[in-house]
Write a structure and sequence with these properties.
By secondary structure, this protein is mostly beta strands. It contains 2 helices and 10 strands, in the order αββββββββββα.
Length: 166
Amino acid sequence: MDIIITVFTVMSMYLNLSHSSNNGHYYNADIENGVLSTLYVYDNKSDYLVPTYASHFDYDAQGRLTEKATYKWDTATRTYEPYYKLQFTYCGNEYEIAHCVWSKNTEEWKAAHEKMVYDLDNDHLRSVTHIQFKQADEIPTVNKLFIQDPYDDYLLAMLANRKFDF
């Protein structure tokens, strides 16, 4: 079973956000050929909307998400400044998400300081590995979680009609 983050997944996220009005944020998007390319987030400040974040999405030829770069609104310069970036890579039954931050000093993205690796080892065992990189000369912190018999096709809606005895 391949687990990927596709154009459809990102579009669903946007449509769900845009129909949720109780969180104090408002959303707008640039959609090109049915593909979400940029998502804008605004805060509702009294009588007007204030820009907060903009996230730009890149995809590979298979329609899988490869990068999400988020920019934070700077009220002083009235521009979006780089904030953080998630890089998605796929290989067989594994995909990883690397978290990078922007360096104002060098004006470039720093190397990933954190990474999540999702792996379907076989049909009944999935592992999630969290790697946190420290200084270049230090050993990274690694946490691994194994999930046996994941129920990917078992929806929460199915639980609504079940009676549980505690």
